[in-house]
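Incident log entry.

Two folding requests arrived from the same account within the same minute. Monitoring flagged them as a possible duplicate submission, but the sequences differ. Recording both here for audit purposes.

Request one:
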Amino acid sequence: MESYKCCLCFTRKFLWSEAQPPADVRAAFDAHSEGGTQMTADQFRRFLAEAQGDAAVADVERVMEQALELRHRQLFHRKHFKPVFTLDDFHHYLFSEELNPPLRSQVHQDMTAPLSHYYIYTGHNSYLTGNQLSSDCSDVPIIKALQNGVRVIELDMWPNATKDNIDILHGRTLTSPVELIKCLRSIKEYAFSASPYPVIITLEDHLTPDLQAKVAEMVIETFGDMLYYPDSESPKEFLSPEALKKRIIISTKPPKEYLEAKNVKENDGDTKKVQESNEAWGMEVPDLQTELECSDKDEDAVDDGGDDDVDDDDQKVRQSSPLEYKRLITIRAGKPKGHITEALKVDQEKVRRLSLSEQELAKAAASYGLLG
């Protein structure tokens, strides 16, 4: 016996349901249609003048015709009868971006309070053209962000392939880099294209001290007088957006957990606390290859008759905070350029973040004795 599969076709149709007019729209319609079910051109003209403050609309009937054509997708023939709005037509007009667009961008708040009192339109990985794993890095997304009113631009800084310049890219991914200087110049050109209020550049630092000093020189030479220099290292409050118009602010610092851990002395009782605090914010360490090389060198040093009382700290990967770029914005632009490099050079090593996958890999390597 042959078996057959039966295919059922569903022919039930569902009607498109528009959102119901809210109470305030109903109230406005009732008030200006004088309690009727339709709003005439004269009543609509009175609504525009009284409720929206727009008495300059000359051809009200044509506006109503356009609204009806857009909603019903058919031409409105004014020769036969005058246009009228139902409640749904009126609702559609009010929320039509084409016919009744939002108010033009304008400042409607007090902008003289400290900057920290406001929400700030912030970008993240502002340089990426696509996904965070394999897309290109470019200044084009930065330009678009600034044109759309973004006020905070994030730049992830890494040494380039030859270690003599700075690239912007999403670290440890396949993203292709873009030069830092190109991003800085684009920020300068487009920073205030959409708004006169300050632009904050957040620098995520993965650089050596000499490259950090190079960044400082690039920033000062690119922005010049546009850079904001605070009067003190610890101001009581920020200046206002109004006072910071057309200014560029540099922002970067290590996580607070690291700063707290850095101040804890590594004695017998505090070592564990320091380690736990570092792990809490994902402290970065050199990759496995670097760890293996360091481990081999340490073993060779001991085998060659090195000091048996080697300090434990020398066996660990040294940690230090990134360069405090707050020193960059406290250097006055009038100082000779030679002093900039000297002032910014500090003897410290870069901090790198360890992802969860790298943590697991490191643990696995340690369990098999690969790290010495």
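Request two (distinct sequence, not a duplicate):
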Amino acid sequence: MTGLDQLRDALSDADPDPERACDAVMAALLSPRRTDDVCLLIARTAALDERRVASWELPSDPEVVARMRAAVARTLADWNLEEAAFTTELVVSELLGNAIRHAVGPVRLRLMRNRALICEVADGSTTAPHLRRAAITDEGGRGLFLVAQMVQRWGTRYTKNGKIIWTEQDLPAAERAPR
């Protein structure tokens, strides 16, 4: 039996509590006289309610940006998050504009309302944007810098088909999804 088979067996009837599951797996797989360090990470995940996700597949057409700002504003109103509309519309404009201007393939916009408001823009390019400070004479290059100033976090996640640029905005405690 391989190590992966042993792990699969140990997890097949594991306790739902992550800490107890870790203890059981470690006891089943490790000899008492081990000679190396071992690390095991078990995490509990939960699917996000579909009413807290909005997603759009978009053509690479600059005219779509204005329509998506309006769609995002409607979605935020449905979620009682009107106060996040200004920032989210700016984020959507910048990230979609960059994806349409610089990337390839289909573009996808997704909003997720959980403990924070997540905005993701996916495209078919693996070139990540970089934050820069535009010179006073530059006509462009300030958008991502502005986005970074208005959200709590942002980043890039690579996929097998390209990348996702994401931003995270804090929500008022009353509007956060329960854990």
